[in-house]
Design a protein that fits this description.
By secondary structure, the protein is α/β, with parallel strands linked by helices. 36% of the residues lie in helices and 16% in strands. It has helices spanning 40-50, 61-73, 84-97, 110-118, 129-135, 189-198, 201-215, 226-236, 245-253, 307-317, 320-323, 347-353, 359-374, and strands spanning 33-34, 52-57, 76-81, 104-107, 125-126, 143-154, 180-183, 240-242, 262-266, 291-300, 332-334, 354-356. Strands 2, 3, 4, 6, 7, 8, 9, 10, 11 and 12 form a ten-stranded mixed β-sheet that branches. Strands 1-5 form a two-stranded parallel sheet. Helix 2 links the parallel strand 2 and strand 3. Helix 6 (189-198) packs across helix 13 and helix 7 (201-215) crosses helix 8. The radius of gyration is 21 Å and the shape is globular.
């Protein structure tokens, strides 16, 4: 099974650790950080002089934002949508061959970004005080555009109690065998990152406590910790792996089913539930976590020939004009906390009930989790 090289060391690190497969990572020169910051007026003028921008990404909404940016500033935007794996590979190929291509990329699997782009010195390092005032971080090299959330969601046509799904171990209970679905982690790396995060000491401790709360007894481990134990139990309890969060949400939420099905998928699917006549619900009090959330990064590449246009686009995406295409998506939160969000749960509330990726931990442990899953029988 395919192995991904992962690295979560800091951008400016000089010496990197050994990969989990024993291969040593190359040493890179210190990153040069561009701290030159134009006024917004001067940035617009410089970007318009460049006249063009090439953007790759995995989310279709970015195409709408690109069209709005082009209309507002008169800068031609070439947009390409790719799946995460194809995106990672295409950028790596373009940058390694110095063949040109993307100026700006929107991607979400931070572990692969770090391992396959940053370690190869493909990332343009820059700072912005103006954007830092909005996001709380002046370092824009791995700028977060938004946080996207996934949750455990059930069909509430038969189970209308808002606390029906109350504990993460419920999914692994024999009475729910074959009723839980999620997107195959090999098709979307953030799902693998979630599995990996469950095995951290902190999260595994919470998982063990949740087990005791659900079953009334201490967990008997057959694996390194309760996080691994849950992953094993979920697979062995007939977890169904799908290819699309949208399809999974439609299968889970379809009305007229004789059993109550559960899924782990993007919370933004609630945005279209009414139009699609789906019966969906989630419990934000689920023990110990309702789901997970992860950053989607805006990354300017060192090879970019339109860096000012790329900077302006990053700034545009953190503005009301750029965010308008996401603001009605439940479960999506701009890195600019001044911008609106849909639904009743604030970002601060969400951060207390869901798992966030720790990129260093994922780098160090994701291959172990991949190997572990291969060995489940």
């Amino acid at each position: 099974m395919k192995r991904f090289l992962l690295c979560l060391c800091l951008v400016s690190a000089l010496i990197f650790p050994t990969f989990a497969n024993g291969e040593k990572e190359k040493t890179t020169a210190p990153a040069i950080v561009d701290e030159t910051e134009l006024s917004q007026e001067d940035l617009i003028a410089a970007a318009q002089k460049e006249g063009k921008l090439v953007v790759y990404g995995t989310h279709s909404y970015i195409e709408k934002a690109a069209a709005a940016f082009q209309e507002k500033y008169g800068i031609q935007v070439s947009w390409t949508q790719l799946g995460e794996t194809d995106l990672i590979q295409k950028i790596s190929a373009e940058c390694s061959s110095n063949a040109g291509g993307a100026d700006l990329v929107y991607a979400q699997d931070g572990s692969r970004i770090k391992g396959e782009w940053i370690n190869q010195n493909y990332i343009y390092n820059w700072k912005s005080k103006r954007l830092g005032a909005l996001t709380g971080n002046e370092d824009m090299s791995m700028s977060v555009f938004e946080y996207s959330c996934k949750a455990f969601i059930w069909n509430n046509e038969l189970e209308s109690d808002g606390k029906y799904l109350s504990n993460i171990w419920q999914i692994t209970d024999p009475q729910y065998k074959g009723l839980f679905s999620m997107k195959d982690p090999y098709a979307e790396g953030v799902n693998f990152n979630f599995f990996t995060m469950l095995t951290s000491d902190e999260n595994a401790t919470k998982m063990a406590k949740a087990y005791k709360d659900y079953y009334g007894k201490d967990i008997a481990l057959t694996t390194p910790n309760a996080g691994y134990e849950w992953i094993k139990a979920a697979y062995k309890n007939g977890m169904i792996l799908g290819t699309s969060d949208t399809k999974i949400s439609e299968e889970i939420g379809a009305k007229g089913q004789s059993v109550t099905r559960i899924g782990l998928f993007a919370v933004q699917r609630f945005a279209t539930a009414k139009v699609k006549n789906l019966a969906l619900a989630m419990n934000t009090g689920m023990d110990p976590y309702v789901g997970f959330y992860y950053p989607i990064y805006s990354i300017i590449l060192k090879q970019s020939t339109h860096k000012n246009a790329a900077k302006l686009f990053v700034e545009f995406m953190l503005s009301e004009d750029g965010w308008q295409f996401w603001k009605n998506n439940v479960g999506d939160y701009s890195a600019n906390k001044n911008l609106p969000y849909a639904g009743d749960i604030s970002f601060d509330q969400w951060s207390k009930v869901a798992v966030l990726e720790n990129m260093d931990f994922v780098y160090q442990n994701r291959v172990k989790v991949e190997d572990f899953i291969v060995g489940i029988n």
